[in-house]
Amino acid sequence: MTRIFGVLAWFAGLVFFAPVAWMFLTSLHSETDAATNPPSIAAPLTLDGYAEFFNGGAWPPLLNSFSASIGSTIIVLLLAIPAAYALSIKPVEKWTDVLFFFLSTKMMPVVAALLPIYLIAQFAGMLDNISFLTLLYCSMNLPIAVWLMRSFLSEVPREILEAASIDGAGLITILRRVVAPIAMPGIAATALICFIFSWNELLFARVLTGVVAGTAPVYLTGFVTSQGLFLAKVCAAAVVVSLPVLIAGFAAQDKLVQGLSLGAVK
Amino acid sequence: MAVLDSVSTGERSVADRPPPVPRRSYPKWARRAPLLPALIFLIVVTQLPFVATLVISFMKWNSLDPTNRGFAGFDNYVNVFTDPDLRSSVVNTIVLTASVVLISLVLGLGLALLLDKKFKGRGLVRTMLIAPFLVVPVAAALIWKHVLYNPEYGLFNGILNWLGFDAQPDWISSMPMSAVVLSLVWQWTPFMMLILLAGLQSKPVEPVEAARIDGASPFQIFRYLTFPHLRQYLELGALLGSIYIVQNFDAVFTITSGGLGTANLPYMIYQTFYQAHEYGEASAAGVIVVAGSIVIATFALRVVSSLFKEEAR
Hints:
Oligomer: heterodimer
CATH class of chain B: Mainly Alpha
Mean pLDDT of chain A: 86
Distance between the termini of chain A: 30 Å
Number of helices of chain B: 14
Number of domains of chain B: 1
Shape of chain B: globular
Largest sheet of chain A: none
Distance between the termini of chain B: 10 Å
Low-confidence stretches of chain A: none
CATH class of chain A: Mainly Alpha
Number of strands of chain A: 0
Number of strands of chain B: 2
Helix content of chain B: 55-70%
Helix content of chain A: over 70%
Order of helices and strands of chain B: HHEEHHHHHHHHHHHH
Strand content of chain A: under 5%
Radius of gyration of chain A: 23 Å
Largest interface: A-B, 114 and 124 residues
Structural class of chain B: mainly alpha
Low-confidence stretches of chain B: 1-18
């Protein structure tokens, strides 16, 4: 009986993984081998698809994506950690209301704010500007980060904080010597999850950026209407653009559910 | 219960205790200070644009015709509600969201139950199952559109050819909505699986053991013990999935470009504002989306809040 479950699980795993594996394999084929029917699995491998992708102007969008994702993640952490502190370790009055206000902003569809944000960007001369996009990604990720960080900070044992305080440790010492070491894995997981969300974002990037500040997902939309021999190149592009997310995702694997459910599931 | 929210584990939770008695009591403003930057930033960036959307939704405003701008009353709302394209986009949004959430929830439940068993290579299978969720959404949609669905050299028709079938269907044009749904199910099933797996693994062992000793069948154990425990995880998965998928833009934009009757509300608003430059109508549609989301969000917040209280108790 258990053997059947194992076989089934392996089968399901392979089915779900097949498109990813196929994307990877096709990215290593030549364009002509990539576009055959039936598919040529054993065709010789080549890095031409990658060469063409990187020579085709892929660096600026990748760098834009990195700066928007990393920049917004850093700002979000700087804003979220103190806020989470004020919602868990030294909670303000009505802290649950504040917490749920953060969550409720995440439930509003971003598309409804698209036009005014576009108009503001236009008015401020910030269209096609990566800093503006970075700022937007901060607001997108801040509620998630606050919820997550609060959930991690509330794991800091109260007794230790009190003991440290009685022993005469000041606020800075407590933060550095007690809170930080316990919260560090949580901070890392929060950072990785914010990075993934920013990196994946398309709608705002598509509307607000153009040739200068276009991000990697915007670059990928160039393939939407492509025709002819481009499969190896599009697969190489998909692999390269997804690689940071795959790495960050697997690095944060244990905390991934907690992050995606805004800390609701441990 | 080893469950939800993070107010964290039992006796350490913050909510069930009276507020701590600080040795040195801080004034109120000092407690609030760390919270303010985040709060103000969020209000400015997320709430003010909604106010602007509301204002613009009552204006006549097409950016291609800038002189003809003014108050329009409820005209935009009337236009939105009488526009057949927009009405069908509402239906599409509901169909898309409901089918993706339900199918991936059922598949995710099956996979979570399988992964809850012990077998050789479980870690590897888990990793393979998570991978689809970690492909960038636009990239995933491109792969489905060009590499899997393509009628001439796509993998699906290649496999059909291999197996000796003559049929070489054009997947996207013959079943556009299902094509979008399938690609999203592929991406979202791992998400549901992860949530449900977390639920299964937090299930207490003793009652199951006791039931087994008392002669309960595996089905009875699932029906009366596992399923009730999983219910809140199923609810949570469904709600979070709905919130994310209602807003889906990438798959519709990439796979069908909103054509063939698949345009959902986010795509429709994008098009009304970005391509047709009808600012007033796009805003009215936006306000309607917000109103719809508030309904879902109210349920979602209620569920999260009840889990939150349960954990804090």
